[in-house]
């Protein structure tokens, strides 16, 4: 059977599997019990995938709820696929229920359809094709590693790599872009705690500050409540409503302020509109004094609407991977402090010490308390390596695209998690990035095409093991 015949025969099953997996809301939670480290729904998603793989005739292994393993073939030379089943929170602005998948107009809608549940199912079926058609050469094997905490702290894949007996010789990560990503920027996740100076004599008291859903998502919504002491609420509301993206209304002797931005992935914040920054800019335009004027002023001076971190003292850039990107993903109040959850992605040629030193210097100047939460070093694979060349050849053969080359990104994929791994798909050059956004969808023709590419790409990589024997 050709790969085209296989895809035609299994199209409806693939669509149904993607849809069913979307319907499990695999968002990180602390509600898990034993062997459910990232919550009940994430565990349910992992168990569903492993059961589906068993139904397809594959070997599976559950690493205490931290990760899953799906294997075909039993040879020592191993090619890996790293994907994840957890997703970011739904966020605002959906036209459909994000966890009740909808198939319409040739697309599968739902949170995780493209990041990373659709590509995970596609990889599973690519493996099934190679298994069913006897295309796993003697002495080789394929292994799909299923992560459970990719959108948070990578606790799942880190547990897996420290407990598994061996890792694949080479791996693809279907959680980026075609044709291929050979370089990823360094990443620092950190919190900034700011002790609020609450001016009791101010004209307006600001309470209930909030915004965003995750540090790796550009905040789509933010807000606060204003209590007017020495100010006319009607004038304040009028001022705020003139500001594009902000709405204000009077209710129960308070002004409810909402800033509406546009969510997108933090690796490309320039494609979105940060509602937290929008709120801070709007508050700065109020002519009366605010109880948190000091915080608002510092936020706009050191952060503002600047996604390249130049105001923040980290406006680095290199020829290999481009500019720094900077995102304040969450604004929350905690024990009298404001906490900003930040994500900064820096050029691959930079040293972590230089970047963190610049962050700490700015925080010191601004009076922000810096606390590092996570760090991922840059990753780089030689574009002319046999590994990359084989995958590029398959991509060009399937798509006919001779124009696009392998490139660098600011995203953080599982290619950083193990040696000799690159992000390979699933997004095609002509497609819009919808990961972490409202109305995320996966085009069915893209699902079919990526399955073709993955099947042939994995077979090509298996051939590297044959040549070594």
For the residues shown, what is the average pLDDT?
95
The number of helical elements comes to 10
Structural class from helices and strands?
alpha+beta
Terminal residue distance: 27 Å
The low-pLDDT segments are: none
Q: Can you give a write-up of this model?
A:
This protein is α+β, with helices and mostly antiparallel strands and 469 residues long. It folds into 2 domains: 272 residues, Aminopeptidase, CATH 3.40.630.10; 189 residues, Alpha-Beta Plaits (2-Layer Sandwich). The chain is 32% helix and 27% strand. It contains 10 helices and 24 strands. The protein has a 6-stranded mixed sheet with strand order 1-2-6-3-7-22. The chain has a 4-stranded antiparallel sheet with strand order 17-18-10-19, covered by helices on one side. A 4-stranded antiparallel sheet has the order 11-12-14-13. Helix 3 packs across helix 10, helix 6 crosses helix 7 and helix 9 runs antiparallel to helix 10. The protein is elongated, with a radius of gyration of 24 Å. The two termini are 27 Å apart. 50% of the residues are buried. The mean pLDDT is 95.
């Amino acid at each position: 059977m050709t790969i085209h015949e296989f895809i035609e025969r299994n199209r409806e099953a693939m669509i149904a599997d993607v849809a069913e997996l979307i319907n499990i809301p695999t968002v990180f939670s602390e509600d898990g019990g034993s062997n459910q480290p990232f919550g009940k729904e994430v565990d349910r998603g992992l168990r569903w995938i492993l059961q589906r793989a068993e139904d397809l005739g594959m070997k599976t292994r559950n690493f205490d709820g931290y990760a899953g393993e799906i294997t075909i073939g039993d040879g020592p030379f191993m090619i890996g696929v790293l994907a994840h089943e957890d997703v970011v929170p739904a966020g605002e602005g959906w036209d459909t229920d994000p966890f009740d998948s909808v198939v319409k107009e040739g697309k599968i809608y739902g949170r995780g359809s493209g990041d990373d549940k659709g590509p995970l199912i596609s990889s599973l079926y690519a493996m099934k094709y190679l298994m069913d058609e006897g295309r796993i050469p003697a002495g080789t094997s394929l292994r799909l590693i299923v992560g459970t905490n990719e959108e948070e702290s990578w606790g799942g894949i880190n547990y897996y790599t420290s407990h598994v007996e061996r890792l694949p010789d080479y791996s693809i990560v279907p959680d980026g872009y075609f044709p291929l990503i050979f370089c990823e920027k360094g990443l620092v996740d950190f919190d900034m705690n700011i002790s609020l100076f609450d001016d009791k004599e101010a004209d307006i008291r600001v309470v209930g500050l909030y915004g965003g859903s995750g540090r790796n998502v550009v905040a789509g919504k933010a807000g606060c409540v204003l209590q007017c002491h020495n100010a006319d609420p009607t004038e304040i509301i009028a001022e705020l409503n003139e500001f594009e993206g902000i709405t204000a209304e009077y209710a129960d002797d308070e002004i409810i302020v909402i800033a509406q931005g546009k969510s997108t992935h933090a690796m490309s914040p320039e494609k979105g509109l940060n509602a937290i920054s929008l709120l801070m800019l709007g508050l700065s335009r109020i002519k009366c004094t605010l109880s948190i004027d000091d915080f608002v002023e510092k936020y706009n001076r050191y952060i503002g609407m600047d996604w390249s971190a130049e105001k923040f003292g980290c406006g680095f850039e290199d020829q290999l991977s481009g500019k720094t990107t900077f995102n304040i993903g969450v604004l929350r109040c905690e024990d009298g402090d404001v906490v900003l959850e930040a994500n900064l992605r820096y050029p691959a040629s930079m040293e972590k010490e230089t970047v963190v030193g610049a962050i700490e210097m700015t925080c010191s100047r601004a009076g922000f308390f810096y606390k590092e939460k996570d760090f991922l070093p840059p990753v780089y694979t030689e574009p002319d390596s046999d590994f990359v060349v084989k995958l590029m050849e398959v991509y060009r053969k399937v798509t006919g695209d001779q124009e696009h080359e392998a490139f660098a990104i600011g995203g953080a994929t599982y290619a950083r998690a193990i040696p000799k791994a690159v992000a390979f798909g699933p997004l095609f050059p002509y497609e819009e990035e919808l990961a972490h956004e409202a109305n995320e969808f996966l085009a069915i023709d893209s699902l079919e095409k990526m399955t073709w590419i993955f099947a042939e790409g994995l077979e090509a990589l298996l051939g590297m093991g044959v040549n070594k024997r």
